[in-house]
Design goal:
The protein is 77% helix and 0% strand. It is mostly helical. It is globular and about 60 Å long.
Length: 441
């Protein structure tokens, strides 16, 4: 992108005439009232906590179930890669489904896919059903659907804080899920843990049907907007068109570059914890809870305070700086307590980065395309997870543990320098700030 090139961005109002709380859509349908929004937001958080709890119930039982069925570590890696690849393919299409047919339909679809996945896992007695249980994850995007709901009913000025607080609810499930799953597995079986997760997903479907309206967008799409996008959920061109928005393309690029070292490290974290730091199962549970709490504090409190005081461009730079410090500490860590220190800057950087980028991405597209953009954002994470186990294994085998910290330090240092001196970054920040000022006025 040259200095003279204009960075274009939509004003987020394509196909509508604004999003005031008391405004009406082209068909005369009134916006949601504040009391309705609060109820929808509460039920969305409850469903996110339910989804996270169920996911971590089965996620904790999965390694033991695969071992029980005689699956070796290599095949287990293939199983995890299958999950990532399927989610990568489904994210953008799921977002378009929600944009066209409403967020309630999207949530029901996501929880139905989760229930099917966990049910198949509970019935698994061999590798065939194990792999089949991963296929419904093509539509298992409950967190993405929750982000779509929050995006629809939140003001742009408070959207980053609202999206960040979803992580707080997810963290609750991340803490409760492994505990519940562990107890059920201990006293019953791994299959019973999967069935418990399935029942929880079915309960979420009922909550969605009762409390979430068919469409949470304040305004209906205009006919012109509908014609421009096309009626098909499988219109890949309409999804790919969003990548031509320079601000969106730049933010997705940054997210992918920053997320790659972190994804590689996370894919090998359990192995590193056992082999490098001699962390046993009990201490590993404490460590995971500690990491979950650190993320919850940042998502529930830190992000909201920061986004109210500082602009997106500055926060992105701070996130990169936090990552750089965290990876430098990681490269030199040689005792278990070092990990407890290292995860703090990594949690700070990751929380700020993910929340700010997700929030900004929803602001630079028309309201009737926010689901698709969130799907593309989720797809970048899935893409990283598809190759992380393989790359992480090679790095650990040939370069050793410090290589994870060194890779992250080098990548984030180079990116921080780029952000300081790049005219593209300065233009993107200027466009986003101009857009925010325009909408506030």
């Amino acid at each position: 992108m040259t200095d003279s090139e204009e960075v274009k961005v939509t004003d987020g109002t394509s196909g509508s005439q604004g999003q005031g709380q008391d405004s009406q859509g082209p068909t005369g349908r009134p916006s949601l009232s504040e009391s309705q929004k609060k109820l929808i937001l509460l039920m969305t958080h409850i469903n996110v906590a339910m989804y996270s709890t169920c996911f971590w119930i089965q996620q904790g039982a999965l390694p033991y179930l695969t071992k029980k069925l005689g699956v070796d570590p290599v095949v287990y890696g293939y199983l995890q890669t299958t999950f990532a690849v399927v989610q990568l393919c489904g994210g953008p299409l799921f977002g378009r489904f929600g944009d066209l047919l409403g967020t309630r339909s999207a949530l029901v679809l996501a929880f139905s896919a989760a229930a099917l996945s966990y049910g198949l896992l509970g019935m698994a007695e061999g590798m065939t059903l194990l792999f089949l249980s991963r296929l419904p994850s093509f539509l298992m995007h409950s967190m993405q659907a929750a982000q779509m709901v929050v995006t629809d009913i939140s003001d742009e000025s408070s959207r980053a804080d609202a999206l960040g607080k979803l992580g707080l609810s997810y963290g609750v499930g991340m803490i409760l899920g492994p505990v519940l799953g562990g107890q059920v597995t201990k006293y019953f079986s791994e299959q019973h843990s999967a069935y418990l997760a399935m029942v929880g997903s079915l309960v979420s479907i009922l909550l969605v049907m009762v409390f979430i309206p068919a469409n949470t967008k304040s305004l209906n799409k205009s006919k012109d907007s509908a014609k421009e996008e096309g009626p098909s959920v499988f219109d890949v061109k309409a999804i790919a068109k969003l990548l031509t928005i320079p601000v969106a393309a730049y933010l997705l690029f940054v997210r992918t570059i920053v997320g790659t070292p972190l994804g590689i490290f996370q894919s090998m974290f359990s192995v590193i914890a056992m082999d490098r730091f001699n962390i046993g199962p009990e201490e590993n549970g404490y460590l995971m809870s500690y990491i979950g709490l650190a993320n919850m504090v940042m998502m529930g409190l830190g992000v909201g305070m920061l986004t109210k005081r500082y602009n997106e461009g500055l926060l992105l730079k701070w996130a990169i700086y936090a990552f750089t410090i965290g990876y430098l500490l990681l490269a030199g860590a040689n005792m278990s307590w070092h990990i407890y220190v290292t995860v703090i800057p990594l949690a700070i950087g990751g929380t700020i980065m993910n929340t700010v980028i997700s929030s900004t991405l929803t602001k630079v597209v028309p309201p009737d395309s926010t689901g698709q953009m969130l799907g593309l954002s989720m797809a970048s994470n899935s893409m990283i997870r598809t190759m992380s186990p393989t790359v992480g294994g090679l790095m650990l085998g040939y370069a050793g543990y410090p290589s994870f910290g060194i890779l992250g330090f080098v990548v984030n240092t180079l990116l921080s320098v780029y952000m300081v001196f790049s005219p593209t970054h300065a233009k993107v920040v200027a466009v986003v700030e101009k857009q925010n000022a325009k909408k506030e006025s």
